[in-house]
Amino acid sequence: MDEFQRTLLCISQELSKSDVCSLIFLCQDFLPLKNKVIENATEIFILLEENGFLDMHDMFIVKELLFLIHQFKLLKDFFNVSKERMEEEMKYSSKTTISSYRHLLFDLAEEVSEEDLIKIKQLLNCQISRSSMDKVKDIYGMFTEMEKTAILAKDTIEPLKKIFNEIDESLLCKITTYEESYAGNLNIIKLCPCPKPINGFYEMRSKPRGLCLILNNFNFNEARQNIPTLKELKDRRGTKTDLESLREVFLHLHFFVKSFNDLTGKKILQVLKHYSEQNHEKSSAFICCILSHGNKGIVYGTDGQSVAIHDIASYFIRSRCPSLSGKPKVFFIQACQGKEFQGSVSPETDACNCSSVCSETKNKLIPDEPDFLLGMATASSFVSFRHCTQGTWYIQALCKHLKGQCPRGKDLNTILTMVNNEVSQKFDTQHGGTQMPEPCSTLGKKLIFPLH
């Protein structure tokens, strides 16, 4: 057992059954907990690992959960983090996973007594069936049942206000604060549709600058087994090198980096949806890197299900992610964009050797809105190359030039031109393979990542 696993086990042993119930409630928006019987915190930590929210390099989710359930001593004992310092870190919403909506419900739940729960059941007696109501054993179950029956949702808080107006008026202020915050986020577009350029540059003052998501797919065994046309799809050897390079460079550029490994097509969309719904108001930018196999206009999940690149970026348009309105949203896609297999053993490609391409592939890869930049590893219809130990031509060149040129004050478009130049000069002499990256952009200003 390594130090990482030992720490999680020790934390789990310190948590009570009540703490475990709290963790289950806090995590239910993003973990597959339905019909699962969770006995201890270790099982929750395992699910967090399996779903990409926790690894040995990033234990922030554990600290966040301990903070929310008021286990401040464990925070100090295992992470040497005080309550005050964690409170400060939590202000950077791009680092948090638990939504403000779930946080609100948890805060309210802590104030509800058994007598209060009986009153709430009586108030909702006509809206929830008796059989469902009989299964409710605590306030967490009550909130969950209200969500199931669409009485309660992150944008439907009025029923909650009516209930607590009857139960405990002193708690109404928490609900009102959330309601105002949520409404404020929805109105960001109207209040601030697109900040005017400051000397032609995007503002980059917050620390962290914002969130950098890395979705990294290596194991395609499920795709090979279940989809006949993808049976030749190989595991993406060398992708770990790309992941580590991206993590290093964006941490250096003051981004909060969150990585997920081996995601199915559905899970890719779930992760993107989850982070598009977070409050990025205190962020200056958003970065998303996707490392996978692909085809024209799409990337593949590890189950072989295709995800349209246009759909990936569309989660972050103004109407769906208003807190990023007017801020740069940058996507780097390392995946082939063609069906042809220009293969060799090393380097490999990120293409599939299949005979068909989705006939509905979208030509337009980014939304028809300002402030988007898409860096594609290769042009449409062509493969991209990946070395089985050194990583991909594109990502390695990208990281090299970000490291070298950001300290010199070069803007991202200039850096991507340098990346294009380097990658286009590479040549696989054994099989005649070449590659030309293809950036496309609706940025309205220059984007610079300062080191200070």
Automatic annotation (TrEMBL):
Keyword presence, Hydrolase: yes
Alphabetized InterPro entries for the sequence: Caspase-like_dom_sf (IPR029030), Caspase_cys_AS (IPR033139), DEATH-like_dom_sf (IPR011029), DED_dom (IPR001875), Pept_C14_caspase (IPR011600), Pept_C14_p10 (IPR002138), Pept_C14_p20 (IPR001309), Pept_C14A (IPR015917)
Protein name in UniProt: Caspase-8
UniProt KW Transmembrane helix keyword: no
GO biological process: apoptotic process; positive regulation of apoptotic process; protein maturation; proteolysis
GO MF terms, alphabetically ordered: cysteine-type endopeptidase activity
Domain Caspase family p20: 208-340
PANTHER family noted in UniProt: CASPASE 10 (PTHR48169:SF7), DED DOMAIN-CONTAINING PROTEIN (PTHR48169)
Keyword annotations: Apoptosis, Cytoplasm, Hydrolase, Nucleus, Phosphoprotein, Protease, Repeat, Thiol protease, Zymogen
Boundaries of every DED domain copy: 3-80, 100-177
Localization terms from the record: Cytoplasm; Nucleus
Organism annotation: Hymenochirus boettgeri
Top-tier EC class: hydrolase
Enzyme Commission number(s): 3.4.22.61
Domain Caspase family p10: 366-449
Similarity annotation: Belongs to the peptidase C14A family.
Reactions performed catalytically: Strict requirement for Asp at position P1 and has a preferred cleavage sequence of (Leu/Asp/Val)-Glu-Thr-Asp-|-(Gly/Ser/Ala)
Pfam families: DED (PF01335), Peptidase_C14 (PF00656)
SUPFAM superfamilies, A to Z: Caspase-like, DEATH domain
GO CC annotation terms, alphabetical: cytoplasm; nucleus; plasma membrane; protein-containing complex
Gene3D superfamilies named in the record: 3.40.50.1460, Death Domain, Fas
Source organism superkingdom: Eukaryota
